[in-house]
Every structure is written in C-alpha cells, then in structure tokens.
Amino acid sequence: MSALPQGVWRGGEFEKTPRITFPTGHAALDAQLPGGGWPMGALSEVLHDGTGIGEVKLLAAALVRAAESDRLIAWIDPPYLPYAPALAQAGLPLERCLVVRPLTHEDALWAAEQALRSGACGAVLFWPERQSRNVDYAWMRRLQMAAEAGRSMAVLFRSTLSGTHATPAHLRIVLESEDGHLMLRIPKRRGPPLTQPVALHAVDRPRTALAPAPARRARVSLALAAGHR
Amino acid sequence: MRVGQAIASAKVLCGNLHVLLRDVAVEQEALEQLAAWCVQYTPAVSVDGQGVALEVEASLRLFGGHARLTAALRNGMHELGYRATIGIAPTPMAARLFARAEAQGIGVRSCVAIGELGGRIAGLPLFLLDWPQRTLALLADLGILRFKDILALPREGLARRFGPEVMADLDRLTGRMPDPRAPYVPPPTFHVRLELASEVESTQALLFPLRRLLSQMEGFLRGRGAGVQQLTLTLEPVRSKSTRIELAFASPEREADFILALARERLGRAQLAAPTLVIDLRAEALLDYTPRAATWLPGREEQTLGSERLLQRLSARIGRERVFGIALSDDHRPEHGWNQGRGQTPKPPTQRLRGLTPKPHFGARPLWLLHRPQKLVSEDGMPLHQGRLDFIAGPERIEAGWWDGEPVARDYFVAANPGGERFWVYREHHDPKCWYLHGVFA
User: Fold this and answer.
1) What is the CATH number of domain B190-291?
2) Of B310, B324, B356, the CB nearest to A114
3) Interface test with B, best of A95, A181, A182 (most B CBs within 10 A)
4) pTM confidence score
5) Domain spanning A8-225: which CATH class is it, in words?
6) Considering only CB atoms, which chain A residues are within 8 Å of B339?
7) Ramachandran area for residue B203 (φ above 0: left; ψ -120 to 50: alpha; else beta)
C-alpha cells in the first residue's frame, strides 16, 4: 500500500488538496477536521437544536482569524442581536462585524450570497431557517460557489432536522449538549465520516478538550485511483 | 430610391414608406453629449456641424496608440447606442473627410504624417466637403471631381474664380493654414434624458437603457476627473406621476457597472405607478474622484473598498436600518452596553477605538442579548426556563443608571437548563424579586 504513487487517494484518508483552514481552538476537534480547522472558501453547516449550547462560541477562535487583514464578519439573520461586550470578550474586532436583518427569506439568501461573493467578508454566519423551514439545495450550492469565489468561510446554522437532507457543504457538524459537555458528530467532511463523537468541555474553556476521542483511522483496504495528471 | 429625392416621388416608389422629420436640435444635443463623453480621451474636443473633432496627439501614449484609441472610441460609442465613423488625420478637416468617406462606403486609410496627406486625399471626391452646391456643380462641369484635380490647379486662378473661401478651405485641409477650434466646454453638472422607443413596464427592462446613460455619465465624469455621491433617477410615464429614485454612495463613484448594480436593487423594489417613457438622470454635485489602482493582491485598501461596496449593495436592497455594525458603549447596564453603528462603514485601522475593547472586570457576557428581558416563571424562588435552571456562575450585581431615570438593580447569574442550554438570568433587587431571562450563551 505504501508503494502507491502520489495522486492516489486512499478511502480512509482526509482530502489531500491543500486548503486554508482556521483552527477551531480545540485540539481534539482540529484533529478530526481535514486541514485542521474550519475550511475557508467553503460552506460548513452546524446543526443544533436549542440555542445556548455554545454553537457560536465554538467558532470564536476561527472568527478572530477570519477577521484578520481587515475582513468583515457578517451575521446574516441571527436569532437575536449579537451582544457587543460578549464579542469583545471573545476577542472579536467589533468594528469588523456587520449585522444584516433581512425581512424575507429571499433577501436573507441574497444577502448571504452577496456577502460571500464580495470577498470582503472573512466569515459569513447565516441562520437560513429563521424565515423558512426548507432551504433549497440549489441555493445552498450557490452559497458554496460564492464562498469559493470570495475565499470566505461560510457557516450555516440549522436544526438537526435538516441532517437527513443532502448538503453541498464541505463540512457538517452536529452539536449536542450532554452533561455540560458539547458532543460533536461529524456526519460529513472531506474524508471518512466520523463514527465516534468528539467531546468538548463546556464552552468557557475552549482550549482544553475533555476526553479526546481516540484518533482512530478507519481502515479501508480499497484504494481509489484519483485522476493522475 | 436615392438621397435627395422628393418625398412625394419616394412615396410613389415605396407605398408603406415611413417618413421621419430630422430634428436638428436633438442631433446637436446628441453631438454635445458625445463631445462631453469624449473629454475623457482628450481635453481638446470641439463640436463642428455634423461631428466631433478630437485632438488626440497628446493622448496617444496614454491610450496605447491609434488603433487602441479608435477601438475604445468605437466600443464606447456602441455602448452609448451610436454608430461612429472615425477618421484620423493631421488636420481636423482631413479627419472629417476620412470619417465621411467611411460613412459613404469609400475605403480610405487613415494618415498620421502630414507628408502623406496629399496622397491619401487625392482620390477622394470633392462632395465630401461642405462646399455650396453651386461651387461643386461648377467644378464638376470643369471636370474637377477629385482632390487631386483641384490641388493640381494654380492657386491664384482658383482663388480668383471660386473666391478666397475655397482656397482657405483647401489650405486648412492640407495643413498650409492653421485651423484652430474653440474647445467644447462640458456643462458643470450632468443631466441626460432618454426617451424610450416605447413604454416600458418592468423595471428590469429599464436596466439596459439605464446602463447606456450610466456609461455616458462615466465618460463625462472621467473627462472631468470627477465622481458623484448622489444621483437622481426619475422615471417619467406619459401621464401619471413620475417615480424618483435617489441613489447615494458612501464615497464618490463613477463606474457604470457598480452604479447599475446598486440601481438594479433599488429598481427591483420600486413600484412603478405607470409604464415609463422617459428616463431622466441627473447628478448635480460633482466631487473629486480618486481612481483606485487595481492590484493583483488585494491589500488593505481594496478590502475596505470591498466592504464599503458590500455595505452599499446590501443596504440598497434590504434597507439602511437593517444593515448595521455594532459597537461597545461605556455603560454598566447590559441593555446600554452596546449600540448600533447605523450603516456603519468599516473604519480604517488608524481610527479604531482601542480604548473600549475587552473589560476584564466583567463577568461572562452572553452572545445573544434579548431585546427586552423576558419574565420567567419561578418555582420555590428558582427560575424555570424549559426546565429547572441550575446556576453555574454568579451573582454579579449590576446597579447603575439612577442618574438618568432608567435605574437598574439586578443580580445576574449564568444558568443552565437540563437540555444544556445556558442563559443569562437576573433577579430584580426590589420586591417582588422577579426572575428575568436576558441573554443566551450561544
């Protein structure tokens, strides 16, 4: 197996294309993400039920990095208003935050696409299900393309119900709260799906992860030959 | 049918002939607008009778030579909805001659050296000049039809027979005599009206003619090194009230594409009272415009520009009050601890308010703050919210605001419910000591 030439991707590995990522600030989570963090220039989904389990805080470290070199962080249609002192505590540059509260679902999608495509936003956080239960696959695909074009980190917050639908997102993370720990499952990533959940300690101490899940490599003996140029 | 035919005989030949009257005033106006647009290529523009003359010698290096300049002019005119024939020559009269020859379908090569001019015009017919019909007829009777014939005649005899004007024209044409032109001075403001061929109902269909007007404005503004920060677009129907749309930008702008993108969002939301017949575009205040250098690597400035444009685009469609920034304000009361930077543009790094960033003496603050605290039900003095709340941190006493009539006296706690959701709750100091939900730790 080790004698396989370059350009051959094995089924059990992470995607090999180099991609810019923003570390999450949690070593245990970084280890499970291809590239070691939230992907830039791609769409990610965070599925969670109930607000207040630390779903946004999980992104804090990445958002600080995304706002570097004077890029904006766009909050499209958040469920409540982001509270300035909390953002400042998390180290986010407030003057780079932009809140958009559109009136209709169409406007919200449009705003998210514009923000991603403009290239002015390092990160776009979008709550697409605030105004409509279903988010069109075609629209998601558009957002994905816009994120690629604008080299932006796009994160969609959706309910766990949408976990049954297909997604064009590169990364899908499901959050659940269990005994004060945040449990993460990764049903979709550029690599083998994660079978065992990652546990993170309740939100306040992001740098220490409790009980890191064993970094088990799925053993897949099938080798897939990628297009070799 | 041919040129110069009487209308009556033309109608006999062609039954469904549609005759349009020539409107010289409108023609002249269009020429002046074109002249204003041409000022972007050279300051020495003049309008003469049926054309525009540009002195381009000094602009050739900047615009990359004759070929590129004429291509740019042709494309630009095409965008404005006109078709231009262009002649290049060392004298304005010769250039006009060439342009007319092209319009008549006579092939002619442009000429840049004065020495070659005589040879290039030799084969052209004399009727391309604006000479009186009588003079041309007389010359034709003598068998003089082309420039080579007339230029071969002795000068004195020609002047005696046809008058000094004819001689002077020929001298100006060949460059023996200077031909100064009064430069066209563009008006101090930009205003253009476009009458559409038919009434237009959908705002989307207005974008195409609007784009034309905006290109015209871009050329006008380029010529003056200016930009506009405010634009008035008026859509006039035949009878009922016209629709006025004001476009405002954060900084002076002039790029047609950018302005069109903003206008598209505004038009998309506008309700037209009646189908539009006339588009009227007006820019009163022209401001200095700093062109933006395009670079390969987006730097800080481009990033700021991108942010500004994004902000303008979003607020154009979603509404100014629904797109905003957030800022800290120096108050201990949670609801006053922030404010909304309305339509705030990202500040350049030098102006950042460094003084107001993180306050270490604060307890944990929730990411989401409820607009209005929500009263909670309590059981045995303990608050409930989707289950019994357990306190994780607190109390943090906040007592402030007695000086401005909105006093606050509360004990704040961080609390979690059985579902693992964490909230920011408080209890009022005064009786009946009610519990309130004030934030969510997302």
Assistant:
1) 3.30.1490.100
2) B310
3) A95
4) 0.64
5) alpha beta
6) 84
7) alpha
